[in-house]
């Protein structure tokens, strides 16, 4: 049987995980998302970088947290945003996600010097 968690457990897990990234970094990349968040970046270009709020996310409900959206940033490289990596303040890798699925940007077409903003972002711990 698959693992099944109670609401209280998924909420606690989501809140604990998200507390780790308060004040951390969010990096937006092009190309293929690596197999795991532990996999080194190889050939993908960093298109933008955000400093995460503290607190980064609100309280969890049913294992889902919604981000306190970071301030806008500017494009570093011109390409199409496809995935992102979340890092702690000490640059320890936490998780990767897909642009357009867990996160929506003002545009996936990033250009150098243009404003890049996150319009929505959620993170979910599965029951």
Distance between the termini: 13 Å
- Main sheet: which strands, in order across? 2-1-6-7
Q: What about the largest sheet?
A: 4 strands, antiparallel
Rg calculated over all Cα atoms: 15 Å
Number of helices, where a helix is a run of at least 4 consecutive DSSP H or I residues: 1
Quick recap:
The protein is mainly beta. 10% of the residues lie in helices and 34% in strands. A 4-stranded antiparallel sheet has the order 2-1-6-7, with no helix packed on it. Strands 3-11-8 form a 3-stranded antiparallel sheet, covered by helices on one side. It has a two-stranded antiparallel sheet with strand order 4-10.
Question: Explain this structure to me?
Answer:
It is built from 1 helix and 11 strands, in the order H-E-E-E-E-E-E-E-E-E-E-E. The chain is mostly beta strands and 127 residues long. It has one domain (7-34, 42-118). The strands form 4 sheets. The chain has a 4-stranded antiparallel β-sheet with strand order 2-1-6-7, with no helix packed on it. It has a 3-stranded antiparallel β-sheet with strand order 3-11-8, covered by helices on one side. Strands 4-10 form a two-stranded antiparallel sheet. The protein is globular. It starts with 6 loop residues before the first helix and ends with a strand.
């Amino acid at each position: 049987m698959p693992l099944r968690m109670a609401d209280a457990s998924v909420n606690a897990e989501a809140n604990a995980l998200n507390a780790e990234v308060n004040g951390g970094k969010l990096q937006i990349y092009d190309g293929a998302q690596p197999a795991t968040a532990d996999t080194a970046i190889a050939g993908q270009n960093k298109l933008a970088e955000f400093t995460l709020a503290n607190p980064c996310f609100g309280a969890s409900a049913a294992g889902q947290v919604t981000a306190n959206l970071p301030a806008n940033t500017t494009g570093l490289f011109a390409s199409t945003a496809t995935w992102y990596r979340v890092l702690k303040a000490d640059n320890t890798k936490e998780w990767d996600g897909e642009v357009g699925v867990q996160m929506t940007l003002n545009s996936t077409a990033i250009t150098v010097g243009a404003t890049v903003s996150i319009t929505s972002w959620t993170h979910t711990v599965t029951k």
